[in-house]
Amino acid sequence: MSSLEPFDAVYFNLTDFEADIHCRIEKLIREDLASNNHDRIAKVVKQLCKDYAYDVHHPYARTGGLIGLAAASIALGSVCKILFFFPG
Fold first, then answer.
1. N or C: which terminal CB in the chain sees fewer CB atoms within 10 Å?
2. H-only helix segments in the chain
3. Count of structural domains within the chain
4. In angstroms, rounded to a whole number, what is the distance separating the alpha carbons of residues 81 and 79?
5. Which pTM was predicted?
6. Residue 43 and residue 46: Cα distance in Å, rounded?
7. Residue 35 DSSP class
8. Is residue 50 part of a domain?
9. Is position 1 within any domain?
10. Residue 76 near residue 41, CB atoms below 8 Å
11. Do the domain assignments include residue 21?
């Protein structure tokens, strides 16, 4: 699954597809973080919020957006506070 030890798909009751998406987003964010591509990270997070997490008409899209945001926040760890709350 993932190189992240605390993540357990069974504990969160995720399907294989949801767990796969979680791992892909987490990997994407970690790679961008390693290459200091903060603009792309911000675009991914904004798109997850705007297009998925706030979608009130499609509950499955909303759930997927929240799973993606969870993956992004796990990948960012403590860097999340620095990138989004204190940009610049």
1. C
2. 9-12, 16-34, 38-47, 59-76, 79-80
3. 1
4. 5
5. 0.69
6. 5
7. T
8. yes
9. no
10. yes
11. yes
